[in-house]
Amino acid sequence: MLHSKLLRRGLASLVMAVGLAFGAAQSWAEEIRVLNWQGYGTDEAWSLELFTEKTGIDVVHDYFNSEQEMLTKLRTNPGAYDVVLINSAYTKQAADEGLIQAIDTSGMKNVADLSPGMRDNENLAPGGTTYGVAWLWGVTSFAVNTNDFSEMPQSIEELWDPKHAGRVGWRDDAIEAVMFAAIATGQDINNPSDFVVIRDKLRALKPQIRTFWSSEDEWNQFMSANEFDLATYWSGSASRSKTAFGLPVEFVIPKEGAIGWLDGLSVATDAPNPEGAKAFIDWMIDPEFYVTWDTEVGAPASANAKANAELPETAFNRAVLGDPEKVATLQFMGPMDEELRQKILELWQETKTYLQE
Amino acid sequence: MQSATVDAPRISGRRLRAIAGLTGPAYFWLALTVFLPLSAMFYFSFLSDVPFGKRVAVLTLENYAAFFEKEFYRTLMLRSFRLGAEVTFYCFLFGFPCAYLLAKTIKGRWREALFLLVILPFWSNALVRIFSWTMVLRGNGVLERLVNWIVPDYGPLNLMFTYPAIVVGLVHSYLPYMILTCYISLEAIDDSLIEAARSLGARRLTVLRRLVLPLALPGILAGAILIFVPVVGSFMEPRILGGRQGTFIGTIIEDQFTAVFNWPLGAALSFLMLGFVLLILLVVVPLARRAT
Question: Is any Cβ of chain B less than 8 angstroms from the Cβ of A339?
Fold first, then answer.
């Protein structure tokens, strides 16, 4: 009897010890995996430290360089990612392909503060089901080197001005290139009606373009080596180039308008840690994170109205993007069917061949 | 070679097993690492879409048809071949005299030291080499300053982001191949042959044309093939050094894989390029052999 009692006690304590060890290992190793552009907010070291302190969750990153790459990574690695950044123009496609899951936002405290127009945006929440939590929005237009301009240009035609022959930087991206030409020729960016006009407008860039850029890092290098007078750019990156890199650049929203975009954070299908993913998304839309990010580093505008209101009054995201008249000139990027995308791609490749002759 | 064919029927079963045992692992490895991925890509080139996730892909010839339907693919292919030919020519122009000096004129320790200098660039990463060229070629860069220092007020050179910049970068990257292959075949030429020709009254130029070049041809051809094939498909150098001029078939193929994710089209374009390269080699190599 005594013998078996001892044995039982010993076994019980052994089971407990093993349980503890596993439990401890599990909570210690809790992590989430994020897929995003490099240097785009989610990977700010100071913010991750704060997040780990608050929740005990470690954040691991993987990056992409184009929306197509992001979609391919989701398709080829199911179950590898928790949080993924998706431009709202692609959210519905990702949801239809079963790459991301519907998000129940009830437990997320900052969702209530999101601008309703962005939170319930049809592209992010098709049919009222949230597939992407509105995070940031901004503008794709161009930025100028302030050393080369005594006054700020007002028109998108500045990119085609012979004054800047061989001094224009252009992003090597088919859809963006065609959208710029659509704006310059007064067409709908999501469904241009006259491709001949767009083709001619893009071909007219031939004497203008210095070189193509493909990443923010590259843009900064070219700008600091004084290769460009002006170059196409993103509003959030322009504020980073100014704030974090001290480059003499200024972002321009021309009178013809510019490309507006809205980015959402989504949870991947089969995410290993969906709860951790939601906690992280909630932190990303938290004003505490956003205000520090924009003032210390530079960011696009937040979809959280409360966060934008806490910015200094002179901040670009509050002063310019808070101006309803400016915002009214923007054309927001919408979903595009595969056929149109293919047509745009071929047009751009053909244009690049022409530019080289 | 000849003795091997004569010996062939006499190889015993045991010998065959030994040969298979010794070479087998190498061929197996080759099949596994080269043939398998390539055939996967070949299969991809006939698909309508990348068969990942929930996407459905059907077999199609459309990717190959696209090349013949769109004129700009042909323009780019031709331009890539022109680039390959030019880079190969310049590599020969600079590489052959270098190899000749190394093989026939310089002896002993100096040769070793110079050899080291030829191979040295190979020890650095290709990307680093190309980025160093951007420092040399760009406006107010090393070269422009040097020229303006020698000839005051020469003004800007405007070399960066041009076609010549791409050629310069590629020639520098691939020159060692030409020097090494030419060196090996020049080294094998018996010096007494040259002396005999000279003593029979042949001028230096005649010796070079009738004796040295034909005997060095295998090395020249090997170098040319080693250079021509990768340059036709090059994408990193044109992208960094070429700016607006830097669109070639290689960069379009890279776009299909990294930016657009149309792997089937990228694979089809790659195999078309491979086909054209093989065709060119099939025509040019025998011609060159016969000419000398």
Answer: no
Distance from CA of A212 to the nearest CA of B (A): 6
Dihedrals φ, ψ of B174, to 5°? -105, -5
Specify the CATH superfamily of domain A31-137+261-313: Periplasmic binding protein-like II (3.40.190.10)
- Is A169:A230 a contact under the CB 8 Å cutoff? yes
The pLDDT value recorded for residue A25 is 43
B152 vs A: CB within 8 A: no
Chain A (216-235) residues lying within 8 Å, Cβ to Cβ, of chain B? 225-227
The domain ranges of chain B are 1-44, 62-291
Q: At A120, which helix (H) or strand (E)?
A: none
- Tokens at residue A202, please? 């893009």
B9: distance to nearest CA of chain A, Å?
A: 52
Cα–Cα distance for residue pair A71/A335, rounded to 1 Å: 14
Measured between CA atoms, the residue of chain B closest to residue A344 is B260
Amino acid letter, residue B95: G
| In contact, A356 and B161? CB cutoff 8 Å | no
Per-residue model confidence as pLDDT tens digits over A76-103 = 899 999 999 999 999 999 999 999 999 9
User: Taking CB atoms and an 8 Å cutoff, what residues of chain B touch A69?
Assistant: 258-259, 261
Q: Which CATH architecture has domain B62-291?
A: Orthogonal Bundle (1.10)
- Average pLDDT of chain B, as a whole number: 89
Map out the domains of chain A as residue ranges: 31-137+261-313, 138-260+335-356
Question: Of A75, A141, A136, A172, which Cα lies nearest the Cα of A294?
Answer: A136
This complex has an ipTM of 0.80
pLDDT at A66: 83
**b/e map B213-235, b = 16+ CB within 10 Å:** eebbbebbbbbbbbbbbbbbbbb
> Mean pLDDT over all residues of chain A?
89
Partner-chain contact B244 A75, CB within 8 Å? no
Does residue A23 have a pLDDT over 60?
no
Strand partners, B77: none
Mean pLDDT, residues B33-43 taken together:
90
Pairing of strands A133-145, A230-234: antiparallel
Q: What CATH number should be reported for the domain whose range is A138-260+335-356?
A: 3.40.190.10
Q: Which two tokens stand for residue B280?
A: 């060119």
Residue of A345, A349, A356 with shortest CB distance to B244: A356
